[in-house]
Structures are given as structure tokens and as C-alpha cells.
Amino acid sequence: MTQTREEFEARLRQIGAERYHDKHPFHHLLHGGGCTPDQVRAWVINRYYYQHSIPMKDAAFMSRVESPDLRRAWRSRIEDHDGTDTNPGGIKRWLKLAEAVGLDPDYVASTEGVMPATKFAVDAYVRFVRDKTLLEAVAASLTELFAPKIHADRIQGLLKNYDFADDSSLSYFQNRLKEAPKDVAFGLKWVLDHADTQEKQDMAANALIFKTDVLWSQLDALHSAYVEPGRIPPGAWQPGQGMANAKAA
Hints:
By secondary structure, the chain is mainly alpha-helical. It has helices at residues 5-19, 25-31, 37-62, 68-82, 90-100, 105-110, 116-131, 134-140, 147-161, 171-194, 198-226, 244-248.
């Protein structure tokens, strides 16, 4: 039975309440000051792969959109990450964080030390957006509904617990608090407008579940590799690699 607009929005929000990665043990460690410097560095390196893939995901989406209005509305997402003449963009802001935690930004940008599981999860998301229906692609982006809280908690936790944290190093998260609301409002309205049958509502809900699984699986891999000793997979970043002082030397 097709849900009302209000019922369906509540269903989407419940998915976040149950499945969003703010509940993952690694984030509790990170925000609570329980991560070692190397665990923070591993998170920065692997999360960068997600950050740098987002504009490619959005470009893949836009390549399939015939509506100029939808392309125009979506285009700002690429600019938010890649930057413009007046905005350095989220990718550069993330590399500022990498530098602040002692990593060589060029090493992080190379994605050389990213874990295989991270690549598999993020690449699966890019393929999902490229290959699935436009409704499913937009619905998968609705994890942004739940992002402002995790960004606010992260800013507060990092500032409280880590010496590297300041306005410059945390500018990515501070900026997303301003950028994300417009994306959330547009994406949610688009999904609610277009998911007008039970089948479409189920497709959209399952797409959002898929995206929460992508985010959760990245943290599962990170926790397994860098919190549990002796679990770093072959080819992934090893503590001491890619450090900024090594480049200077």
C-alpha cells in the first residue's frame, strides 16, 4: 500500500535512526578521543577515497539526466567538492585535515594506502548511482539527512580531544554544516515527489539502506584493520608511511 508523503518521509528517517554510521563503534572511539594518532590517520586516508569519489558519482548521475533543471540543481554538489574560483572545495579541505594530522597530502591524494574494502564499498556506490534508476540514485544520497548531527558531534569531539583540531583542520565539517541543508531539502523533496507508488517507495527506501551499508562497511573495515592489532590488509597504509615529515626529509 502506497504510504502518504508524511508516512514515507518518516520511513526514510527511521532508516537513518536505525542504520546510519554515527552508531558505529569506530565513530564513538573517534569522537570520544579514544583513537590513537595512527587510527585517526587511517580514517583520514580511507575517508578521503570516499570524498574524492563523490563528485565522480555526481558527474555520473548528471550524465544520465535529461532535465536541465535537475542538472542545474545537482551541479552545485560537484562544485562543493571540487571547488570553484572562490571556494577551495571539500576535497582540498579534507587534505588540510590530512596535513594537520601529520600526513603528506600528496600521499593521501594518491589513494595509494586505501584499504581494498574501502575501494570496493565506494566503487560500488559510484556504480549504483551510474546504473540504477534516477530515483534510486537520488534516494541513496539522502544519508545527508543525518549528516549534520554527525558533523556537529565530530567537530565538538575532535576539538575537545585532539591537539590537531582547530578551525582550519576542521573546515571540511564546518563547511558541510552550511552546504548540506540545501542538498538535503532538494533531494528529499525530489524523492517524495517521484516515489508515488509502493514499488517506487520500496525502491527508494532500499537505495537508502544500500547507502547506509556502504558507509557502515567502510568503518567495519577500518575498525578491523586498525583497532584490532595485526589486521591491516596487504597494500593498505602502514603507520609511518606517507608522513609529512618524511616528505620534508
